[in-house]
Amino acid sequence: MIKAENVKKVFGTVTVLEDVNLTVNPGEVVTILGSSGSGKSTLIRCINGLEKLDGGRITVDEFDVAKPKELAEARKRSGTVFQLFNLYPHMTAVQNITLAPIEVLKRPRAEAEQEARDLLASVGLGDRADAFPSQLSGGQRQRVGICRALAMKPRYLLLDEVTSALDPEMTAEVLNILAKLAAEGTTMVFVTHEIEFARQISDRIVFLEKGKLVVDLPTERFFAEDGGLANPRVAQFLSKMR
Ligand code: ADP
Ligand code: MG
C-alpha cells in the first residue's frame, strides 16, 4: 500500500504540493489528473523518494521514503516508467532490462536474461531483444521501459505520462500493454492525459490543482459528476481534454 499523508513540497519560494493525502491499495489502478504544472510528476517523484519532502510522510508498504534505510526497501517495491528516453543508449533492450535485477537483486545473469526475453515477448518485442534504443521506435522504447520496471517485480507501477511523446498508433501499443497489466491486477499509479483510457482502466481518479489534491473519487462518479458536485475546475479540465 502506498500512503501519502499531508505531503508538502516546496521549490524555492513556490509550494508545489500542499497537504496531499493519497492512499493506493493493492490491486488498485489510480489515475492522477491535473493541468500541466499542477504537481503530478512531483508527487510521483516524491513517492519514489526522488524528492525530499518538506512536510508530511509517504510510506510504501510501511517503509518511510524519507528514511534512507527504508528508502531502498520502498524503491524495490515500486517500478517507475517516465515519459521517454530514459533507457541507456549504449545498452540493448535486454541489457537495459537486466541491469538492475543483476546489480541490485543479484540475480544470475542467464536467468535475468531469460526473464527479460520473456517479458519482451509478452509485450510483442520478442524479436527486438538485442536492439539498441536508437534502433527502436518510441512506442517500442516505452514497452522496453515497462519491461525494465517489471523485471524488478515491483508491487506497484508508477507511470508518468508514458505515452505523451508518442503518436496515436504507438500510444495504442503501450496502452494495450498497460490495460493487460491492469487486468492482471497490477497496482498502478498513472499520470496521463489519455482521459478515455483512464476511464476504462482506473478504479479511482484523483485531481490535482495547484499542488492540492482536490478530488479523490471512484472513476464512475468522477466522470458522472465532473469530479463530484460538478466541480467547475474539473469540468473545465475535462472539456479541454475531450
Ligand atoms: P506536472 O507534472 O503536473 O505538469 P510538475 O510536478 O512537473 O507538474 O511541476 C509542478 C510545479 O513545480 C511546476 O510549477 C514546476 O515548474 C515546478 N517544479 C518542478 N520541478 C522543479 C524543480 N526541480 N525545481 C523548481 N521547480 C520545479
Ligand atoms: Mg509532469
UniProtKB/TrEMBL annotation:
CDD domains: ABC_HisP_GlnQ. Residues 2-235 form the ABC transporter domain. Keywords: Amino-acid transport, ATP-binding, Cell membrane, Membrane, Nucleotide-binding, Transport. PROSITE patterns: ABC_TRANSPORTER_1 (PS00211), ABC_TRANSPORTER_2 (PS50893). Pfam families: ABC_tran. It is a peripheral membrane protein. It is found in: Cell membrane. GO terms for cellular component: plasma membrane. GO terms for molecular function: ABC-type amino acid transporter activity; ATP binding; ATP hydrolysis activity. Signal peptide: none annotated. Belongs to the ABC transporter superfamily. This is Amino acid ABC transporter ATP-binding protein. It comes from Paradevosia shaoguanensis. The lineage of its organism: Bacteria, Pseudomonadati, Pseudomonadota, Alphaproteobacteria, Hyphomicrobiales.
